[in-house]
UniProtKB/TrEMBL annotation:
<dbReference type="InterPro" id="IPR016174">
    <property type="entry name" value="Di-haem_cyt_TM"/>
</dbReference>
<feature type="transmembrane region" description="Helical">
    <location>
        <begin position="331"/>
        <end position="355"/>
    </location>
</feature>
<protein>
    <recommendedName>
        <fullName>Cytochrome bc1 complex cytochrome b subunit</fullName>
        <ecNumber>7.1.1.8</ecNumber>
    </recommendedName>
</protein>
<keyword id="KW-0812">Transmembrane</keyword>
<feature type="transmembrane region" description="Helical">
    <location>
        <begin position="146"/>
        <end position="166"/>
    </location>
</feature>
<feature type="transmembrane region" description="Helical">
    <location>
        <begin position="257"/>
        <end position="285"/>
    </location>
</feature>
<feature type="transmembrane region" description="Helical">
    <location>
        <begin position="211"/>
        <end position="236"/>
    </location>
</feature>
<dbReference type="InterPro" id="IPR005797">
    <property type="entry name" value="Cyt_b/b6_N"/>
</dbReference>
<keyword id="KW-0472">Membrane</keyword>
<keyword id="KW-1133">Transmembrane helix</keyword>
<feature type="domain" description="Cytochrome b/b6 N-terminal region profile">
    <location>
        <begin position="17"/>
        <end position="243"/>
    </location>
</feature>
<dbReference type="InterPro" id="IPR027387">
    <property type="entry name" value="Cytb/b6-like_sf"/>
</dbReference>
<dbReference type="Pfam" id="PF13631">
    <property type="entry name" value="Cytochrom_B_N_2"/>
</dbReference>
<feature type="transmembrane region" description="Helical">
    <location>
        <begin position="375"/>
        <end position="394"/>
    </location>
</feature>
<feature type="transmembrane region" description="Helical">
    <location>
        <begin position="50"/>
        <end position="69"/>
    </location>
</feature>
<feature type="transmembrane region" description="Helical">
    <location>
        <begin position="178"/>
        <end position="199"/>
    </location>
</feature>
<feature type="transmembrane region" description="Helical">
    <location>
        <begin position="115"/>
        <end position="134"/>
    </location>
</feature>
Length: 541
């Protein structure tokens, strides 16, 4: 009896490694469920990608800079490559930044990429949030993700502030001194807060090491956690999409994550990286060698913060220098009041989704985006907020505006003070009227069709312009949006004639609801009956 030896075929090494990893991490199941996830395609969705990619670039360049930066304020005498500052006493932080700029291979380019990347990161987040706001993408179920994005924006602003304070040059030192003055304006505890932050009298010897720890460890760690949570919720909730034929709240029309979207995203990352590198190579930013080391008794001419902190300085520059004495304490209201307004201006962004949800009473999920014109009150609020921001930005650079445009700095300051209250109201009214006009135009296009520019003379002598009927796809896009009815309080008396007790919150909600969805605040969509009547009659040419 013969026995036949049969060899057991072994899987290739790569397959065995993949099986081993999948048995312990569940990668295959996770990938199978998510790698074919559909993402819609629209240019505005790239704004969030720009923010993500620039954040990655900032992290990568920041790691490189950390290898050469010395976060210490011990005084040294500079003997590096930059001749004009040789023999000058300065902090180790400033000296090491000069070494990075002139002696470390590629150091200046990496510094420039890091700084430009940070500016673009915050700008991309800002514009991305505005896109989310104006299209209503913050509605249920994305309110929490909106808060994550808001916290990322705020943390990014303070990460940038601590970052450009690290070189200890004259410009950044002036910015830190500005922050110290704002902290000292806090009644009673301001001095204690300042001593705690700076380790004693300003500037002390501790703030650069403390800012360094916050800048490279605490704030980036929090931001990475929020960013991961933000992306997880984007995957979980599925992506929003603009209205169009075949698009509903229950589906997503677009491309799969693999291979199409990932290939496009990978290429886009290198485009963003390349663009930031080109900007960094041709546009100098923060030339600390031209400013010199920080000295508490000096202020650089035309000292300006980065743009995202400019509105905070504008608040203080526009505020009158009021002071009062209270219980033996001098209260610097000219600084303290702007310090309190600063978080309120930011918080207005954070709480808005919850305010609109309360006004509408809408509990349904929304995955189709609004056209901004179809939410005129929301759009007007957003533009009004932006106008406040830019007025404060002008106020924060009033000296630069005055010198460059040969204007009176007092006139610019008073323009900012008046504009802070007047301009938002005007922009709100104008934006709302524009949105209403666009809604009327959409209604006319639905009922009468698109103007062709062709003039036709009828047999009885009348001249008319020929209108071309819209396609079914265009009609759907112009009429698919939901129109809310304003909230009504109801009768003030019950069926027995007894006056009902109406809560004040209900009255406020009804007031806001009328402001959002009253007849004078939205144009009613054409009904199917109106469309049929006008397209089948003599009114349509």
């Amino acid at each position: 009896m013969s026995t036949e030896n049969t060899a057991v075929r072994q899987a290739p090494r790569g397959e065995r490694i993949a099986d081993w990893a999948d048995g312990r991490l569940g990668i295959y199941g996770l990938a199978k469920a998510n790698m074919r996830k559909i993402f819609p395609d629209h240019w505005s969705f790239m704004l969030g990608e720009v923010a993500l990619y620039s954040f990655i670039i900032v992290i990568l360049t920041g790691v490189y800079l950390t290898l050469f930066f010395h976060p210490a304020m011990n005084e040294v005498v500079y003997h590096g490559s930059y001749v004009p500052l040789q023999g000058v006493r300065m902090s180790e932080a400033y000296a090491s930044t000069l070494d990075i700029s002139f002696d470390v291979r590629g150091g200046l380019l990496i510094r420039q990429i890091h700084h430009w990347g940070a500016l673009i990161f915050i700008a991309a987040m800002f514009v991305h949030m505005m896109r989310v706001f104006f299209t209503g993408a913050f509605r249920k179920p994305r309110e929490v993700n909106w808060l994550f994005g808001f916290l990322l924006l705020v943390l990014g602003m303070f990460t940038g502030f601590t970052g450009y304070s690290l070189p200890d040059d004259l410009l950044s030192g002036t910015g830190v001194r500005f922050m110290e003055g704002a902290i000292l304006s806090v009644p009673i505890v301001g001095t204690y807060l300042s001593f705690f932050l700076f380790g004693g009298e300003f500037p002390g010897t501790d703030f650069v090491p403390r800012f360094f720890s916050v800048h490279v460890l605490l704030l980036p760690g929090l931001m990475v956690g929020l960013l991961v949570a933000h992306l997880i919720l984007v995957f979980y909730h599925k992506h929003t999409q603009f209205p169009g034929p075949g698009k509903t709240n229950k589906n997503v029309v677009g491309m799969p994550l693999l291979p199409v979207y990932m290939a496009k995203a990978g290429g886009f990352f290198f485009l963003v990286f390349g663009l930031i590198a080109v900007i960094a190579g041709i546009a100098s930013i923060n030339p600390i060698w031209a400013l010199g080391p920080y000295r508490p008794d000096q202020v650089s001419t035309g000292a300006q913060p980065d743009w995202y902190m400019g509105f905070s300085e504008g608040l203080i520059r526009l505020m009158p220098g009021w002071e009062i004495n209270f219980a033996g304490h001098t209260l610097a209201l000219g600084v303290f009041i702007p310090l309190m307004i600063f978080p309120l201006v930011l918080a207005a962004i954070a709480v808005y989704p919850f305010i609109e949800s309360w006004v509408t009473g809408d509990k349904s999920e929304h995955h189709i985006l609004d056209r901004p014109r179809n939410a005129p009150t929301r759009t007007a609020f957003g533009v009004a907020w932006l106008s406040v921001y830019f007025i404060l930005l002008v106020g924060g650079g009033n000296d630069i505006w005055a010198t460059h445009f040969h204007l009176s700095i007092n006139a610019i300051t008073w323009f900012g003070r008046i504009g802070f209250f007047v301009v938002p109201v005007l922009t709100f009214i104008v934006t709302k009227r524009i949105c209403m006009g666009l809604q009327r135009r959409d209604r006319d296009k639905v009922l009468h069709g698109r103007e062709t520019g062709i003039i036709k003379r009828l047999p009885h002598g009348e001249f008319i312009e020929v209108h071309e009927p819209l396609s079914r796809e265009k009609l759907h896009t112009l009429t698919q949006h939901h129109q809310y009815e304003p909230h009504e309080i109801g009768p003030e008396v019950d069926e027995n004639g007894v006056r009902r007790k109406i809560k004040r919150s209900e009255k406020v909600r009804a007031l806001f609801s009328r402001g959002y969805y009253g007849k004078e605040n939205q144009i009613s969509k054409p009904t199917a009956q109106e469309y049929e009547e006008i397209t089948s009659g003599h009114g349509h040419h």
